[in-house]
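Deliverable D5.2: sample structural annotation.
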Amino acid sequence: MLKGSFFYKNGTLFMLAVLLSAFGRQAVFSQEQNTEKPLPDILIGVEYFAGWWQGANSKWVTENKDWRLDYPDRVPLLGEYNAQETMDREIVAAADHGVDFFSILWYYDKNVTKTGQSVKDPCDELNSAVGYFINSPYADRMKFMIELTNHAPFAIISDEDWDYCIDVCIDAMRSPSYLRIDGRPVIKIHAGDQLFADFDGDVDRCRKMLQRIRKRVQDAGAGDLLITVGTYGPTPINAEHNFVKSGEINGTMQYMDVPNRPLKKECYPYEEVVALSKEMRDVHENDLIPWTPYLPAGWYPRPWKDPRADFALPTEQQWRAALVGMKNDLERTGKFGFPRRDGSIQKAFTIYAWNEYGEGGFISPTQGTGYMKLEVIKDVFRR
């Protein structure tokens, strides 16, 4: 496991399908980006993984067996495969229950040609969610942002690599549904420590690269970029941290983390993963740049034969308690979320995840829990 981000997708080398053509209908940047609607007091984001396709290398299959047969409770009700109709139903369900944005994982692969086309492969749909969201007739009901997944084997290192990825982000930013804070489009670089490791720890080189991508976004007319990077582990972001020394990182976020426990036959309690999330909030409460916390909807990766420990999926009571704890901390401190232009904080958190069915982190309606997790979100946050 590489340092810098806990969640590096299973190790299967996904092929990239860049849906630049899907973005074509947003030919220019929308005037709506300059007249944003007021944001809610607390922004609720959910991590989104578009890893569900049919055929070879399907993530529904482990060791040549469809694991849905053993875990039918995880089968989603809104669609089992990446498709426009699945995304349409997901946007409606999320928006109806108070979810404000999806943070969509996007993977770079050098094997993709620079024309936006790739060799046809069953894994081409891994990056399909951005295009499906933009083209949805319900896209105006919530927001989305791009999370650039930069860990191996999807490293983003050279100027050419970064230019290609930022071109994809700029095209996505043409959508009026792209997440903006005070008019600033938000991107997340998934593994913050890995970003600096790829530049051999050279803060100055990394600073120049971040300045380069910031300028490219500005030159394209997309505005002043709000750059966030992923954190991992109980390390406060102080004046000596590379994130601060670079001077170009506006905020940090965390995808997910789980306690280090030995794998055993029985599950550990769900409360343990929630307790670690709370511990991370305590660690980052006084960071020098704002941190957007995460809340785990579960971690039980046994369908994927993951060697890490399993934790029981939450009951309704446990899920409600976890959400209430997060809400109380955001209201108490006022320190967690995205930075605003006036120096204040737009309170926000993300949930792991919408559709990590194999790993066990999901709030998407499923055969086992129905709409329970979404209904509790709506109730706790009075949406």
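Annotation notes: Residues 26 and 174 are 5 Å apart (CA to CA). The longest strand covers residues 345-352.
The annotation will be released with the project's public dataset once the embargo ends.
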